[in-house]
């Protein structure tokens, strides 16, 4: 049955587009308070060193310096067990050792210079495979394998699977260390006043910052307020409370004045989070007809100096979901090295897995003599597959449509040619990759509030941070659709912990489904109250009424009473609240298939991406504008993952060679090809109006599609990304040689 | 049955005491925004004049002037039918004619000077009795009696009442024109940005400002946010949206920059609201045994140039409530004059009525040869009296206790002496007065929200403005008591229209009962949700559980589960909401009796108040500290009403002679006697934990009690307040003569 919508599916600008483009938007980095102090962090110049002594006497004597703290002065709270707020053992270049506040930034920077730290430089290890060896320098006392052993997934009988297999393919792959490079680096202002802390933070998750800071400083949550009005990019780097939040808060409590801590670009490259590098060994087995019968994967995830999370587990999630396969075994080691801290980056770790798996599948298709599309259509996980271990179906699955409609739009049949058959020197090739992941799904808590004003206009109160993805507009559309009011009557207040409710972070592509469900249920709750009053007025039952364009009608009638008149009968402002629940024994996933054409200049090694078709199952398009923007933005960033982005480290010193946006290469608008988003609406029964999220999936798919297209163009396989100009030239040389 | 409370009834400081005394509190007058412009209003120098022409050319040419508006440029919206936003007929000295915004205050003031207005000066009228005459200058086209006729109240048969009466007493009384003289004059900052208006206003009712400005400027309420974090005194002057709010908003929309408008002290004296003067004729009849049988009252309320409301109706409310009397007639004329606009001031108009009635009752007691206390105890309105016209009882009534316990504490029997019998020149005397009024009662909307955080701490979201009376602390106590958590775990967010719900203004002594009921019901709603989860855990019924000190116990048990553990089982943050309803066919009133001793220096005319016992039926003391502060503050202001405060006007020019705090006399701390608050707890069944409000009642009672005490000391009656030094000396002279 086709649903008809008033607002859902339209193409609307962001609610705050004007503020964003006019410079009026107040980002955390725009918060300047009277009497504010400026904080700076003293960071380790070594990748691994013990701090023997810290002499702050000269720094303290500098006029304008208001406080200096070292490890002994800070709360004993630790993040993820192994990370102190300030450390006396530096585990990566940039590790936090001391902090200063002063009346201006220059003074604070000067004070940092004046602090004399005596270091015992320790041997370091950069390579995760090296770090696993017994003789490697120990970064934490319990050894370099986080948790002491691998995470293991098993399904069916992997031995039997490989026995049944008629074709078996093994290969190794590597992905690199990337930074999010948000327009706005990490920044917060903390203000302790009247026994209460207010933090303006550039964060994807105000409630995460609130609870983390409250715990670290032993404060009641009711007296910690975290606000993020606007934020300049997160991509997973700003998903929860971090050391700098606690430092700013602690220093504000110590000095009684507002304290600002803002990372510069180099600090963000060294001491913020990173897409952690991975090393893969894959061994897949298939029957001659193309049926996958065995998947074995091993990953080593290089988490850097601290265990923000066990990243290998994040990598393996997607390996087990994309394809139907009865026998699977996957092992993941999360390993400490003396590199920057690994974390989330546009997904917990699926892109690092999607690249090797989809290249591997491409190779396997070739080995089987099958078309890559045909091979995927044979093996992709169906609606009923879902969680193949626990036998839970998906709630919706548009993957087949993504593959078929994407291939058609791309004209795959016509475009595909035998690998390496393109004439030079500008060789063209096409490639594709598919995607499935739990991101875009609903999680708990899912909540929202809606207030209907006396004039029939609506305020939405949601914990959802709008991190630039247009989440406020999405929530406004959902509330307007549910309540039957014009979308411009809705104003959305977001991500202020004092006045909204926790609905998870704007992470994991979560908010359309999670925050959106909270808002939709809250709007439905408000509507119920309104219709109850209207039913008394109209002497009918509430379920025989509907609201359209701010008028309450008996269903199907063409005369009704204005909403504003119904509201006059309400004893007080109508407040709706909603709490969404995750369905049990079912799995919500989002799906995608990308198709790309590239041109490789074999004389220069330059790769030009010519066009990309990005087919995504989003359940339902709430706002076409922001949906397409998300797909485009994610795909562009994913192209950088495949071709350009990599933080490089010097093997002799362990220091980062390119902590700046000149030497760290990013996609620019000149590199961006024509991108065609293709929207597949599988109408998820648990999403608001059928919607699922789409924040992360577009990132995962371009890199393997591009790698496959480069192979299709050149006949050369690249087993590491980014596939740089140097890698191309070397690869072509090797092939010739 | 005695209730036991954990927090209710304790003596706690204001939650924001530190911020208030340290200067950290951000009042509307502390709001300075980047790029802000300063607005000034051109005010009429005449009490009555027609504007013939306005020449803005010179003002416009002044560098730094960003906009000038005159009556023709403003929205056509009118307040209470007769008041335009800018006027082309000035109806009082200070009437708003034009407005300017400039880059600083000095430039704005200079621009005001440069605007040339051509006036046709019109004849004016200052005296309300004169204004009622046919030949008086017409201030509005429909004549000077607002509504064209008096408001009339009738009960029983007034003719028959006077026929039955054995003693009849007639007299006339006058009260004067007062200003609230708030520490913080009227001030707001309006900021139009991204299609949305934010106003920081010094207001008692953010929602009133929101709806008024939204209506005036035809904006959706969802896009008008009004915030009042702290405010420096309201007393009824800041109860709703005013011209300056709309002017600031309109000028911000016009210029695209934040606009600040702040009244100076003289502007507040001229163009803010006022306690409107009244003229009374009273005729009361009683039987010889002291039984009141007839009340006739006539009042002329002088509302000034615009009809903010029909003030005579406000005056008459209390006349009919305080005493049980079967026959009553009251007539009230609300009249325009060319004086400043009358409005609410610590009550709608009861103090102006309480003074004549209680002096009249004192005289009648003397005529009957009865003790004034005995006479009141004979006639005061009992629990069953309530609305004597509609035969609705009071919900609670502690008036008898107020009179009896107050008299006892004061040692009335011992102190009272025959009028005029005190030896000179320092004559001592005692007086008393009683009070009953609908203020302190509950009204609709009554609403609130409560959020219980994951750590068991609580955020209260209430529309209640904390105007300095400690309302935030009151709400925190109510939430803490209901939820069984420590009061320090509660943080109260108040009076931000975006994130709270309308629960009426902090006017009419409303918020303890009205906002408090909303918060209590919201907390109860949250508690219900918590106990439901706990009951599942403890395998019992929710109603067999209670929360004490953040632990959920089976009722009576000494072992329970921590609230924080119960909350872990909640699917999302617990949000409670509450809507209170006013009881039907019942009347909620607050009651008081004051007893005062004065010393009159018959050589200088100086009156010294020696001590005051202020007995108040508050239903239940929520916070003893703020309760006693309210009683003391109200009583002190009420003493000024009786002895000092009066705006004076020159009969020849119609201009105010003392629009400043040097010439307008206020009580100072040196004038304040020992005040003994006596708390009577009648435990109102509809109040939160039995509480009623107390904001206004303490103001009404001192003036008549003092007037009666002065009579008791000197033997001279004064029929007009304030009873100034000059009045005392003249009165004593007349008596001797």
Task: Please give a quick description of this structure.
Chain A is an alpha+beta fold. In chain A, 28% of the residues lie in helices and 25% in strands. The mean pLDDT of chain A is 96.
What's the overall average pLDDT of chain A, rounded? Answer: 96
Count of beta strands of chain A: 30
CATH architecture descriptor of the largest domain in chain A: 2-Layer Sandwich
Shape of chain A: globular
Whole-angstrom Rg of chain A: 27 Å
Strand content of chain A: 15-25%
Oligomer: homodimer
The largest pleated sheet of chain A is described as: 7 strands, mixed
Low-confidence segments of chain A, given as residue ranges, are none
C-alpha end-to-end distance of chain A: 61 Å
> For this structure, what is the CATH class of the largest domain in chain A?
Alpha Beta
- Number of separate helices of chain A: 20
Structural class label of chain A: alpha+beta
Helix-residue proportion of chain A: 25-40%
Number of domains of chain A: 3
CATH superfamily of the largest domain in chain A: Aldehyde oxidase/xanthine dehydrogenase, molybdopterin binding domain
Major sheet: arrangement of strands of chain A: 3-7-1-14-11-12-13
For the largest interface in this structure, which chains are involved and how many residues does each contribute?
A: A-B, 48 and 48 residues
Reported by name, the CATH topology of the largest domain in chain A is Aldehyde Oxidoreductase, domain 4
Structure overview:
- The structure is a homodimer of 737-residue chains.
- Chain A has 737 residues and is of the alpha+beta class.
- The first copy, chain A, has 3 domains: 17-24 and 443-580, Aldehyde Oxidoreductase, domain 4 (2-Layer Sandwich); 31-122 and 186-262, Alpha-Beta Complex (Aldehyde Oxidoreductase, domain 3); 275-440 and 586-736, 2-Layer Sandwich (Aldehyde Oxidoreductase, domain 4).
- Helix content of chain A is 28%, strand content 25%.
- In chain A, α9 packs parallel to α10, α10 runs parallel beside α19 (702-714) and α17 (624-643) crosses α19.
- At the A-B interface, β21, β22, β23 and β27 of A face β21, β22, β23 and β27 of B.
């Amino acid at each position: 049955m086709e649903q008809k919508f008033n607002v859902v599916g339209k193409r609307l600008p962001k609610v705050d587009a004007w503020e964003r483009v006019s410079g009026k938007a107040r980002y955390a980095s725009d918060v300047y308070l009277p009497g504010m102090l400026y904080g700076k962090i003293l960071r380790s110049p070594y990748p691994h060193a013990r701090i023997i002594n810290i002499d702050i006497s000269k720094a303290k004597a500098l006029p304008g310096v208001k406080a200096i703290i070292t490890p002994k002065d800070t709360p004993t709270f630790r993040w993820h067990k192994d990370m102190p707020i300030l450390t006396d053992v530096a585990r990566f270049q940039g590790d936090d050792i001391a902090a200063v506040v002063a009346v201006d930034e220059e003074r604070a920077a000067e004070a940092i210079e004046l602090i004399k730290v005596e270091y015992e430089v320790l041997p370091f290890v950069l390579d995760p495979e090296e770090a696993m060896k017994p003789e490697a320098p120990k970064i934490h006392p319990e050894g370099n394998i986080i948790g002491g052993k691998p995470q293991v997934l098993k399904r069916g009988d992997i031995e039997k699977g490989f026995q049944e297999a008629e074709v078996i393919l093994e290969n190794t792959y590597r992905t690199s260390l990337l930074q999010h490079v948000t327009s706005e680096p990490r920044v917060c202002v903390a203000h302790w006043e009247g026994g209460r802390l207010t933090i303006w933070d550039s964060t994807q998750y105000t409630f995460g910052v609130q609870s983390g800071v409250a715990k670290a400083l032993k404060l009641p949550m009711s007296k910690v307020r975290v606000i993020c009005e606007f934020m300049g990019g997160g991509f997973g780097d700003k998903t929860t409370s971090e050391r700098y939040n606690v430092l700013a808060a602690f220093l504000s409590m110590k000095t009684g004045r507002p304290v600002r801590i803002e990372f510069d670009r180099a600090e963000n490259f060294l001491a913020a989070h990173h897409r952690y590098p991975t090393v893969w060994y894959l061994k897949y087995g298939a029957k001659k007809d193309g049926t996958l019968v065995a998947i074995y994967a091993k990953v080593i995830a290089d988490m850097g100096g601290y265990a923000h999370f066990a990243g290998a587990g994040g990598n393996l999630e997607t390996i087990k979901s994309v394809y139907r396969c009865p026998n699977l075994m996957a092992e993941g080691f999360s390993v400490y090295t003396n590199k920057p801290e690994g974390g989330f980056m546009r997904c917990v770790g699926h892109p690092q897995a999607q690249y090797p798996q989809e290249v591997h599948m491409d190779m396997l298709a070739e080995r089987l003599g099958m078309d890559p599309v045909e091979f995927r259509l044979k093996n992709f996980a169906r609606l009923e597959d879902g969680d193949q271990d626990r036998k839970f179906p998906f709630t919706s699955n548009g993957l087949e449509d993504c593959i078929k409609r994407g291939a058609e739009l791309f004209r795959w049949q016509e475009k595909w040619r035998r690998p390496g058959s393109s004439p030079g020197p500008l060789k063209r090739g096409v490639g594709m990759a598919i995607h499935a992941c739990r991101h875009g799904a609903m999680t708990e808590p899912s909540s929202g509030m809606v207030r209907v004003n006396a004039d029939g206009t609506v305020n939405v109160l949601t914990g959802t941070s709008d991190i630039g993805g247009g989440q406020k507009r999405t929530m406004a559309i959902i509330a307007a659709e549910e309540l039957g009011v014009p979308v411009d009557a809705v104003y959305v207040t977001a991500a202020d912990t004092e006045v909204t409710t926790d609905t998870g972070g704007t992470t994991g592509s979560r908010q359309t489904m999670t925050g959106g469900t909270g808002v939709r249920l809250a709007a439905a709750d408000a509507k119920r109250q309104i219709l109850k009053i209207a039913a008394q007025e109209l002497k009918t039952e509430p379920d025989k009424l509907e609201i359209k364009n701010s008028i309450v009608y008996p269903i199907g009638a063409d005369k009704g009473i204005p909403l504003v008149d119904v509201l006059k009968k309400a004893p007080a402002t109508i407040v709706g609240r909603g709490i969404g629940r995750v369905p049990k024994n079912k799995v919500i996933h989002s799906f995608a298939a990308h198709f790309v054409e590239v041109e490789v200049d074999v004389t220069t090694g330059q790769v030009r991406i010519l066009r990309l078709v990005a087919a995504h199952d989003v359940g339902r398009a709430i706002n076409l504008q922001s949906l397409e923007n998300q797909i485009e933005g994610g795909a562009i960033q994913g192209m950088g993952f495949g071709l350009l982005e990599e933080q490089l480290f010097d093997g002799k010193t362990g220091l980062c060679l390119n902590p700046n946006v000149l030497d760290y290469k990013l996609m620019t608008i000149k590199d961006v090809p024509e991108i065609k988003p293709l929207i597949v609406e599988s109408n998820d029964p648990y999403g608001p109006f059928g919607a699922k999220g789409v924040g992360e999936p577009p990132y995962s798919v371009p890199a393997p599609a591009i790698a496959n297209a480069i192979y299709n163009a050149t006949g050369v396989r690249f087993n590491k990304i980014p596939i740089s100009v140097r890698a191309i030239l070397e690869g072509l040389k090797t092939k010739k040689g």
